[in-house]
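Quick question, first post here. What does this chain look like in 3D?
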Amino acid sequence: MESPVTERPEHGPVAAKRRSPAASQITGRRGVAGGRYMPPALRRQLMAEATDRSDADDTRQRESWDQLKKRINGPVNKANTDNLQDIIVELFGANLVRGRGLFCRSLMRAQAQSTSFTAVYAALVAVINTKLPIIGELLVTRLVLQFRRAFRRDDKNQCLSSVMFLAHLSNQRVAHEVLAFQIVSLLLETPTDDSVEVAVAFAREVGAFLGTIAPRVLSYVFDAFRSILHDAEIDKRTQYMIEVLFQHRRDGFKDNPIIPEGLDLVEEDEQIVHEVAMDDDDLDAQDELNVFKLDPEFEENEEKYAAIRRGILGEGESDDDSGSESGTETSTEGDSESGEESGSDEAEPVEPAQPVKQQIHDLTETEMINLRRTIYLAIMSSLSFEEAAHKLLKIEMRPGEEQELCTMVIECCSQERTYKNFYGLIGERLCKLNRMWAGGFAQAFASCYENIHRYETSHLRNIAHFFAHLLAANALRWSELRVVVLTEETTTSSSRIFLKILLQDLAENLGLQALNQKLKSDDAQISEALRGMFPRDDAKSIRFAINYYTSIGLGAITEEMREWLKAAPTPAAGSDSDSDGSDSGSGSVGSSSGSDSRSSYSSYSSSDSRSDSRSDSGSDSEPDSGARPRVSL
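> Answer (accepted):
Ran it through. Tokens below.
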């Protein structure tokens, strides 16, 4: 009986010809040979038979993608404290820009499988983040999205691995400390046994870091743990974990240092912190980077990364020329003929290294926007004005950017619904620490007063309270009021409201008598600077100023102007009718006739009172009941 004959699969070039075109076998869905092993000789044969250029490019890129996977996954799985520096050099040899999705996925998988190596993986990311920040930002974004997804699904294991990785990235200054505070707040908002357990593990890892950077935040976190321990209904095991955490804090987190020994590989001035927040709605995991995609500019991108790799690893030109496919010979110092023949070739690889970073002019103002965001987050994440001033002074700014800090403090103050003394104390602390900041706030005061008509009433009210605090605390010189010129022609309704709130706040803080002494100071510099607020050269401007100060309840500061107005000489008889009418009543106070009531201030007093009363419930626009009467024109 004959045994059934089974067709055995054919191998070699003959089998390849009998099947469909060679290119179809090369470019399978799973890479070369459909994921099956193929001898190198057969692979070269099939590549030679792929006559179509597009098929050849696709095959070459797929092979490169498969090699990239191996060159990333292998070193990541072998990383430990002893060989970490060698692993970093090996990883930079692969195209991490193209394979950043593969690198982040490999790191997250390896860390989830062995959480004891989380500190090693965080140190690895910290070094790569200094050279390729897009990788650090992508990893933090994916970890935040993974934590949010696991938190919604009540997946404790994935939550635990995610927060452990984020804790060590915060310790390495890859993720911002605000993210750590947001994670703890979210976990303890509605405490359960699982959420408290994850929060305890996270606080143990990041506690030493928060105690150094933001001790008040750490105190707030442990107050929340204390409240849960006493009030919440949790399991005995969870209560014991919280008690152990308090013991760790008393010991100074000696078992969980910020950065373990041997993993502090990045200098502080080279760290790049990514401000990814837990509540950001525009986070993108970029999952398309995990799969192969045909790159029409594959060769150009590979050459660009080769230049980046040479800059990072410091490889010489000889290494680059020996490894290049062009086969050009490198020029030596003693060979002048080869230098003349290949002079044009040598100039090409040198050109990318010539531009200096300091010569780049950023017309998009990206760095300025990032600086403003850093200042804003430093202010908003502070629990007290001392902490805010400390954080602001630690921000690294280039020369000329100091004014931006003063402007941002004022803008944050103006955006509040009501004035908060928190901002005034920040400005006072900065001005008294360094007079440079006093000059910055003085410049900001002049700019705000010049453009005060562009602010809404609520905004200019907060700004007026802010500068009143600085003047009352002597953090700002009173001579900075030289920009105020109180006449009918030089003021607007907005500037009069601003000046009214400023002076009334000063009178409330200092007292009317002390304010009058400040404004009538014997200091020649101050008296000269305040000539615009207390005019002496024009009777019309003097009456305008007297009427204005009287209407806001500060008639006591107009004594000298009234004395001068009474002693002023009477104009000639040939003056116009308006001057005659005003001269006849210049020495009198509080005329009741209809013509006397048409003062220069009466033309806008009603409009100021209406606009100001809407924003201050009418309290600021009412004149003092015991104030001196207005001087008629």
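The radius of gyration is 37 Å.
DSSP finds 30 helices and no strands in the chain.
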